[in-house]
Structure formats: C-alpha cells, structure tokens
Protein 1
Amino acid sequence: MYGSLERSDRVAQCAVLAMLFELSSSPKPGNVDRCHDFSDIRFHHFLTSAVSAYPVFRKAASGEGSPGSLILEGVQAWEDWNLRSNTHFGSLVLLIPLALAAGRVAGHEWAVHEQGQETRRDESQENGPYDGVDDGLEEELARVLRSTTVQDAIDFYRAFDLAGARVVQVDDFSLKDPDWERKLIEGNQSLLELMRLSLDHDIVAREWATDFERSFQLAGRLREMVSIYGLNDGVVRTFLEALAEVPDSLISAKFGRERAVEVSSLAVDALLDSTLNKAREMDCELNNRDMNPGSTADLIAASLFISLLRRLRF
C-alpha cells in the first residue's frame, strides 16, 4: 500500500494517463489525435495541456482545494505554456471531482491497512503493491459533488470563460449576462445545482447531475473492449459506441441538434466495420466539416480514469 504522497501521485498519474490515452487513440473521428492536428490547435498542445494538469490532480488527490477552484487552477496552468485554445476543459470538469474522491477512498484504505484490519489487496496479483481504488469510489464521488458551493460555481464560471469553452446557450445564469456573479451569489447556486440546469443538453453536466453514471458504465465497457482489442482499438470502439448512443453536446452547441444526431448515425455505421476503415473515413469527413465530438472524448477520458483507478492493465 502506498503512503500519502505516493497515493496522490498514483491518482494523478492515472488522471494524466487517461487524458493521454484518450488523446492519442486513433482514429477518433473528428478530434485531434496522434495522426492529425486541427489548423489552430495541435497534438502537442493537448499533450502539454494534459501534463500541465498533473500538479492539480495531485492536489485534488491530497484533499487540497475544492472542485471549482481546482478546475480554475487547471485552466490557469495553460497560460504558463502559452496555450490559447480550449484543450481539456471538459476533461478537467470530469476528472477533478474523480481525483478528489479517489484520494479520499485511497486514504481510507490506507487507514484500514495501518490499523491492521483486512485490506482488499490481492496477494496473488503480479502488479506489485496495491494501487487500485475500487470500493467506495462512486459513493465518495457523490459526496464530493454534493459538497460544492456557490464559490465553486463562481470559480467554474471564471474557468469556463478563461478556457473559451462552448455549450448550448441557456436563459438562467448565462455567462453572457454581465451580472452573472451577483446572480449566482444571490441565488446561492452551488456548482452541482448549475450542472443540473444543463443536464438535458450537455453530456458533461449530465455526468455531474447523475453521479457520473454513464462514465462508470463506459469504464466497464472499456475494460471489456481493451481486453479484446487492445488499448488503442478498445478506446476507439468505446468512443464510437458512446457517440452512437448519445449525440455529442459540443457538436450540438456549434451546429445544432440535427447535425449532432447525424454524426451519431455515422458512428453507428463505423461500428459495423471491424477494420475501423469506416471510422477513418468518418474522421476525414468530420475534420473537413470542422465537427469535433469533444464532449464524448471528455467522457471517454473520465471512463479511462475510472478504469485505471480500478487497475486496468493493457
């Protein structure tokens, strides 16, 4: 079992690896991957963004900070590397509360170990000391989400603006309202309550509102896919399945619901081809149309994080 600092480092490593594995998997239709860039943002920008988040994930796993402040800190870290475009905002929004929860669960398991009680370490494993976080992660995550405050909401709005993120426009508590901060304070809106307002049209917000239900489901699917197809193809196929099931909210925000549904239909067709050639064709088509299902990519990053915390090996 790891000590306090080592536990925090391991959780942070899992978070960064999740972002890197999601980023580098190819073909991941419509998104930057190791095989191609966008005209204004490139593969190495996403690599830099992921690595810059490491200290923030370690703080979260150590129990320092709150979800909103850590999301803001993660976006502010981009400035040190001259990153001017949104790279991993959605991933930070999903991975930060998971890192907070994982740190607490791992800390509890360490305390049990220290007291000489029964632990969940399986001595038959060949992976060395216990480094997984499993039992209690979902429950602890729910507590993290429900503990958010109006200050978390304010910090999130500041991070959202700094990142240049895009979502479907809303009537209540809109970032375009110059008086948004006063209204948040007067309404005493926690970050979780704000996410619940957007659950019908934003899949990242929906994860917050449902205790990351879909992320945990997809984490299970990832393990199955990776065991069958290997890491790269397993991630790609899970991404395609997720996109086929639910239209991407970033595409909806940019192009409307009809186009998002169309992209999901393309993902259904791509899954029928075992060679992934249709996925490559879909990738070219979406890139030519400047359509990137980035919210689905963020969901896969969260699912990878959960899988790695639960000892995914490849």
Note: The radius of gyration is 19 Å.
Protein 2
Amino acid sequence: MQLSIYQVDAFANAVFQGNPAAVVPLETWLPDETLQNIASENYLSETAYFVQDGEGFHLRWFTPSKEVRLCGHATLASAHVLFAHLGYSKAAINFNTLGGLLSVRKEGDHYVMDFPTDAPQPFHVLRSLEDILGVQILEMAKGTDDYLALVESEAVLMALQPNFRALSDLNTRGLIVTAPGTTTDIASRCFFPNVGIDEDPVTGSAHTVLTPYWSEKLGKTSISATQGGVRKGQLNCMLKGDRVDLMGKAQTYMQGTIWI
C-alpha cells in the first residue's frame, strides 16, 4: 500500500520554524495499530489523518505513543494540505474530531482555526512542581488536559530546564508554563513527556487555555503569542465567548510516499 504524506511547519512564517506535523490523507480508515505505527515511525509530535465525512472531514491525531483528544498545530497543517495541495476551494473546512467540531478558514496567507475555549480553573500551586522546574510559580490553573503555571518573566521561562522524567509523573497530559511576553503579549512553553513529547514548539490546544486565562488578566480579547524554547512559533488569539480563533501561517517542508 502507498500513502501520500506531507510534513508541514505549522504556526511558522518560514520553514524550520513553528511546529512540524505529518499529515496523511486517507480514503478510508486503516486499523488503529497501523495509524499508531506510522506516527511512531514519523516520530513527530503529531501525525494527523483525515477521511472525508460528508461535507467535512473526520480528523484524528496521534503522537508517537498515543491518540490525543485535541491538537491545534496538526489541524492547521491538515487544513494547509487541503487548501494548498488537494484543491479544497470552499471558504472553510469543518473537521469532526474527538475534541468536537473544529473549522479552519483561510484569510490571505494566514489560516484561522475556530476552536472551543478551555476555561482554566484555579488550582493550588504544587510545591513539588516548583522543585521540578527550579523556579517560583506565581499561580496555577488547570484545563481539561493540562496544568498551567505562571512564572515571573519571559527570561525565567526561557531559562527553564525541566526534569522531564519527574514531569512525566504529573497526572495530566502535560504542563503549560507561561509568562508576560517581551515582543508579544504572552509567551509560553509546553511540556508533554506523558505522551512522548518532552517539549512541543507550538501547541494550538494550549492556547484554548491560555487565551481565556490571559484575556482576563490583560483585559482584552485579542492576544499575540509566542511559544517555544530553541524552536519557536507565533500565533494570534481572539477570544469569542466560548470559542477562540487561533491564527497562524503554515509552510510545506516535505511531500512523500509511505510504503506499507
């Protein structure tokens, strides 16, 4: 069997930026074991698969070790493949996913993803997490999948060198660490050792938590964001009630064929 595969840098203004995702368009679903094996072989933070489903598409995401409920950058990458390579011509793409109905529209050279917000709930500061990070946590919150920790500054954020083995003991998908930005409104780094990703360069789903969190703190609904450590990406976030628009660019890095 031969399958087309695309590797796309999402939330990137140029290749070698943002967060790489693999996208594999399918005519029909393959066994879950095969989907997981391909994702493990790719060894990217996410491999996305989609199958046409009526007027939209059924979309799924796999890390190297498991399927996940919600992924932003691989959704952006999937929309990019449909718009840029597969001739999709409608104004917006609807994706049916484990995380609900998602849509992506194209505005100039940007893509805008319409996602449900994940309003973070206040959470007590875990002193054990401060020990793992080696910094003071000013406050914490918890979304559906992840903890969120606020630190003092972007400089503190960039200097983090977490103990990933210790982080994997958290009873969540992962950890979002955030601070006020220097060149953007906010900055963040995201760590997901529980799903085989020590650090994710740009995480769309994390910004469904970060946007309502920072919107309340900053008193505005439009927020510019940067995420990442060594490798970074940029996006703009707009809070719209119980939905959030996440805007960014995508760049095709590679196109090829899988032989299985």
Note: The chain has a mean pLDDT of 95.
